[in-house]
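Fold description:
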Amino acid sequence: MSMKIGMMSFAHGHAIGYLGILAELGVEIAAADPDRARADAVCGPRAIAVLDGYDALLDWGPDAVVIASENIHHRELTEKAAAAGAYVLSEKPLATSLADCRAMIEACDAAGVGLMTAFPIRFAPAIAQVAAAAHAGRLGRLHALGGRNPGSLPGGWFCQPELSGGGSVIDHTVHCGDLMGWMTGAQPATVYAQINMLVQPEHGVETGGLVAVTFDDGAVATIDASWSRLPSYPTWGGVTLEVVGSDGVMVADAFGEYVEAYLSPEAGGAMWLSYGSDANRGMLLEFLAAVRERRTPQPDGRAGMRSTAIALAAYRSAAAGDVVAVFPEGEEIPAPKPLPGD
């Protein structure tokens, strides 16, 4: 029997790519979006049904849903989906507050369904090789990590904190923060951050941020979380990671497989044409496998909460001009609750 996947919103542009991959994988798909015209424009050419609202989509009985709404809506949509018995793949950041992250995790735990955070960078081969070396102990004790996630300013609701939760810091801290927690196996303890609006200040949100993190095992890390790529840059951005251990150093470029192209302005101008593996596809294959096997997908909601906590701490640090604890007193990530297939 074919798996049924519901698409909840196309507000985030990544949803279009996810939809195309899911269609290629042969799952049954239906969608819903408060912006019906937006959903019709995406789904119409693919002959994918657009239903009248989220309740109708959940009444359709999906095995799982992909949530790509504005960040502020992740909690309510996750709670709806979990109550309907559907696994959840939520866009990053997991939510815009630790309370919402916790509520999403607890809703899925109570319903016995998995919650996955959309961190496709884990599935980029270059990054996966560094992680494998770190987990196998080949780098020894990890002492320092440096991550860069510069990108182009996405505009729209991403620049409206009431919908996004902030600017570049909440958008681009979380990818590197997730990789660092994954590779060290440690919890982030403190953060010191500086943020600014030096690039494209007319949008009214921060477009640059440098976040320094100390983990509870003593490892230290820095994250460049910026929208510093101007529209003329050949691609939207990228993720690079350097990991320094007692026995070795590894450096990876998650999007290093590309051909440089210089075309006429009408044909797109300067651009990088990617080839090779598709990290989004790897992430979706893991999600579908977890749904089939009734196990917890990785990276899970707890990983999403950990990286969100780093970003939120960065805002508190920048406001205070000082080092702050990642988790405020009395707040912590809920203990894991295994699913039947774990």
Remarks:
- The mean pLDDT is 96.
- The longest helix spans residues 301-320.
- The two ends are 23 Å apart (CA to CA).
- The CA atoms of residues 143 and 218 lie 7 Å apart.
